[in-house]
Amino acid sequence: QVQLVESGGGxxxxxxxxxxxxxxxxxxxxxxxxxxxxxxxxxxxxFVATISRTGGSTYYADTVKGRFTISRDNAKNTVNLxxxxxxxxxxxxxxxxxxxxxxxxxxxxxxxxxxxxSS
Length: 119
Prior knowledge:
With 119 residues, the chain is mostly beta strands. It is 0% helix and 55% strand. It contains no helices and eleven strands. The strands form two sheets. Strands 2, 4, 5, 6, 9, 10 and 11 form a seven-stranded mixed sheet that branches. The chain has a four-stranded antiparallel sheet with strand order 1-3-8-7, with no helix packed on it.
């Protein structure tokens, strides 16, 4: 089992920044690929970004590329999502998720943190 807890959400004006954190506990953190997803009201959960076990590889959704940066600190069992130049359409509940490096699906999810961007 891997337990994930997100933090750092809040209300920000358009153009502003927020930094989300995902703290993990349980299994060996460095065995897991970590992803961030978001879900806006009435919409499906969408992929935002992912980072490999070592942090050497990252991948972003086109909608956030160039504005968001994902990073991890395996010594602290944390993954961060730095979000800059926020837009109202970034408003959503943001979730971090863990996938064992050889698995295809994310099996562990946090409870989510709300991000609201006002225009």
